[in-house]
Amino acid sequence: MNAVVTRNLTKKFGTFTAVDDLNLAIRTGSIYGFLGPNGSGKSTTIKMLCGILEPTAGYGEILGMDLRRNREAVKKQLGYMSQKFSLYDDLTVWENLTFYAGLYSLPEAVKQKRVYEMLDMAGLQERKNELTANLSGGWKQRLALGCSILHKPSILFLDEPTGGVDPKSRRLFWDIIYQLAVEGTTIMVTTHFMDEAEHCDRIGFIFEGNLIADDSPQRLKQAIPGLLLEIPAEDPMNFMRQLTDANLACMDMYPYGLSVHVLVAEADIGLYRNYPYTVITPSLEDVFVYYVQSRRRGMVE
Ligand SMILES: Nc1ncnc2c1ncn2[C@@H]1O[C@H](COP(=O)(O)OP(=O)(O)OP(=O)(O)O)[C@@H](O)[C@H]1O
Ligand SMILES: [Mg+2]
Q1: Is domain 2-220 given the CATH code 3.30.70.890 in the classification?
Q2: Which of 8, 120, 207, 238 would you call most buried, defined as having the most Cβ atoms within 10 angstroms of its Cβ?
Q3: 105 Cα: distance to centroid of ligand 2 (angstroms)
Q4: Domain-by-domain residue ranges, the chain?
């Protein structure tokens, strides 16, 4: 069963296509990581799925309900934490939660119970009377999450929830995410952190509005052909020029920190015997580079 399905979902702003014929299927209860460079269409997609932006074309459904026809019913079932989530700085933690609980029209008895549950989930009981303005980024982020799931949504959209918070807060935040998924919530999350993406059940890479890869992290890595070599280099750009001049067969090469990554066919590895390479397992960044390059080549050919 899929909690999200889209077919050729498209959003244009004037003549510019921000999301292009997107086909997604997100299994109920799974964590789906949505990755891509700045401006690739992640937020636009999420806004369409949350009913904030009208698609230009295509079809989308949430929990079996057509996005266009069942807008209000869909909204009741989803939680959304936007990239620029808004909390009221001049309200206390408790007041913010109570305010949002009011927006979801929760019955009075349920409201109080849920506010306390959210304080508990976010570890904010001790701080419930603190002014939100005085909270650090990590606490604010957990409070914002609490505000977006007060109504127990079946599906949760998180748009770069961990941007600008420290690693410890990121880990705490992800503990909560896993727990929600274990309890059956479907989660679609955008992130720029590859370590976070590794822990998603499935990942979609979006590039210039197109979904260029969509699978589990493990299978995405396995799909890369040949062998990936890491060769240390103090000046990666200069070293790449040397490799190019040597004219050794390779499928791809690119700088990677203080090294160069070279993708070679297994049969060609002997050509590199004079270089201090290590054969490595591709990281998700390697995977992303591979799919972007493949797509670019496809366009040129
Ligand atoms: N309301 C709008 N009007 C015109 N163009 C827009 C609008 N909203 C987004 N865009 C453009 O659509 C493209 C996709 O934007 P979007 O915000 O979805 O990217 P993103 O993948 O979320 O990027 P980021 O990682 O920076 O958050 C960008 O080129 C952006 O400038
Ligand atoms: Mg965005």
Answers
A1: no
A2: 207
A3: 28
A4: 2-220, 225-281
